Amino acid sequence: MSVWNPDNIKDVAESIGIASLSDDVLQALSSDIEYRLSQVLEEALKFMRHSRRMTLSTQDVAQSLRVLDIEPLYGYESTRPLRFGEASIGPGQPLFYVEDEEVDFEKLINAPLPKVPREISLTAHWLAVEGVQPTIPQNPTLADSRNQDLVPKGPGANPNLAAISGSDNITVKPLVKHVLSKELQLYFGNVCSAVLDEINDEYRVAALASIRTDPGLHQLVPYFVNFIAEKVTHNLKDLFVLTQIMQLTSALLENKQLYVDPYIGSIVPPVLTCLVGRHLGTSSDPLAHYPLRNIAAALLGSICKKFAKSSHTLKPRLARTCLKHFLDPTKPLGASYGGIIGLQAIGGTEVVRALILPNVKEYESLIREPLEDDTSPKKPEAEAILTALVGALQGLEDDMLDSVKGLQNGDGGGQEESLKEKVGPLIAGRVLELGRPKFVKALLED
User: Fold this and answer.
1) What are phi and psi of 94, to 5 degrees?
2) Max Cα separation, the chain?
3) Which long-range contacts (CB under 8 A, 24 or more apart) does 283-287 make?
4) Is residue 401 pLDDT above 50, yes or no?
5) 20 to 30 A Cα–Cα from 362, which one of 61, 118, 193, 436?
6) What is d(CA 439, CA 192) in angstroms, rounded to the nearest whole number?
7) What is the pTM (predicted TM-score) of this model?
8) 379-393 vs 425-434: helix axis angle to the nearest 10?
9) What DSSP designation does 263 have?
């Protein structure tokens, strides 16, 4: 037995020209109508509950009809509550209707006209330029950012602190996660494992070649930068890992398709660590970590050449760091060596002339003792530093425009004394052993 009255179905059928319907058809239609109405009401109640309301609205019914792929009813959307009136058309047959609001024409005519809405327009502005937010009215100010930082965040935040600071009404948006595709995640994992593979050289070379040439690695750049910093920080005693990480950094910077300018500030610290780190590796050979420092110096030089224009303070900051490690007597000889070759790689002959040449004689006293003592364990490192100093000073010879055929007019002894006075006896002896008068003149004239 259906709850729906079959007489209503008869009235609708007669209104569209169907004179007679059998009782079985009426019963079937009544059951179907009852099922359809209950389905619509169930969906409408879901919308009401999710909206955290206790009153069912016409919008809930309209949304329910859309979900069930039924054309919604039009003309019942209203911002004011509907008032239903009751009228009787016969005994036991009430009729409900929506009461119309009475409008006073005099008040309607004398009412002020609404404001003319503004025309729709679009305006473009820079949200950020190379990671830096410009100070324009469209972007949040520094004060807004500080207030946002003071808001308690996270599930364990104390709401009372926000209320005390007057920020209890601020809504904190969740951080947007950087989503990587499964292919990029698999690629990143395989490349990282291949770069650190000590057994399969071919696998390692192929991974570095892929990073050097693949144009579709934009999303992985921050992950590679974080990987480089993490491995250098936690593997200072493993020269193989440090060397491969420097090779990875070099391959990343050589990829012309990648825009790595915003990440230079994060790439430089691991490179500097491999260049002027105090203790790198655990080998008994005192010169085992020097090839790593050479790689880091070459990498630092390429960074300066490529990114010095976009960051005007890059070269001065790097030169200051290398000079500090070069002249600090408390630093180990390996760090001093890294400072020397780092200065040479950063600015070439200009930096050598301005920073290394004036300090050579003073620095010579630090390596004289291990060089003169054949039993000193520091002698190989002192020899390497002396060779690096002479090699750095040789760049000054290329700037000489006048050719010199030799030491003439018996002034060889005078030039030798002048050279010792300027660069110290150790370096002067190495320079004179080369037999290059042009080199000697370049050192004396600077």
Assistant:
1) -75, 150
2) 141
3) 283/239, 286/377, 286/378, 286/380, 286/381, 287/380, 287/381, 287/384
4) no
5) 436
6) 46
7) 0.59
8) 60
9) G
